[in-house]
Design goal:
The protein has a single domain, classed as Umud Fragment, subunit A, CATH 2.10.109.10. The relative contact order is 0.29. The protein has one helix and six strands, in the order E-E-E-E-E-H-E. By secondary structure, the protein is mainly beta. Strands 1-2-6-3-4-5 form a six-stranded antiparallel beta sheet, with no helix packed on it.
C-alpha cells in the first residue's frame, strides 16, 4: 500500500480517448481498494511491466481483474496481457481535470 493517499498522473497516449486525453492530469486515490474491491467501470492506475497505465475495469470476477482502454483500437490492455491481480492496482482515478 502506498504511503500517501493521492498520486498525480499525466495521461500519455490515446488508449483512454475520449474519456482521457494525452497531456491531461488525473488524481489517483491510492487507498481506494484497501477495504473495497474494484468494480466494473472504475478507472484505475495499474502497474504493468514496471510502468503505470490507466485503464477501465472491464470485469472483476473471482479475484481476476480484466482492464481495457476506452479506445479499443489503440489500447494495450487485458486483451493483450491477460488478467491482472489486486496487487497491480495502484488506485482509482478520482479527479479528471
Amino acid at each position: 500500500m502506498a504511503i500517501f493517499p493521492f498520486s498525480k498522473f499525466i495521461i500519455h497516449g490515446n488508449s483512454m480517448l475520449p474519456t482521457l486525453k494525452p497531456g491531461q492530469d488525473v488524481l489517483c486515490f491510492n487507498w481506494a481498494y484497501v477495504f473495497l474491491k474494484p468494480k466494473a467501470g472504475d478507472i484505475v492506475v495499474v502497474r504493468q511491466n514496471s510502468r503505470e497505465i490507466i485503464k477501465r475495469v472491464h470485469m472483476y470476477k473471482n479475484s481476476r481483474i480484466y482492464v481495457r482502454g476506452d479506445n479499443a483500437k489503440e489500447s494495450t490492455d487485458s486483451r493483450n496481457f491477460g488478467e491482472i491481480n489486486d496487487s497491480q492496482i495502484v488506485g482509482r482515478v478520482i479527479l479528471i481535470r
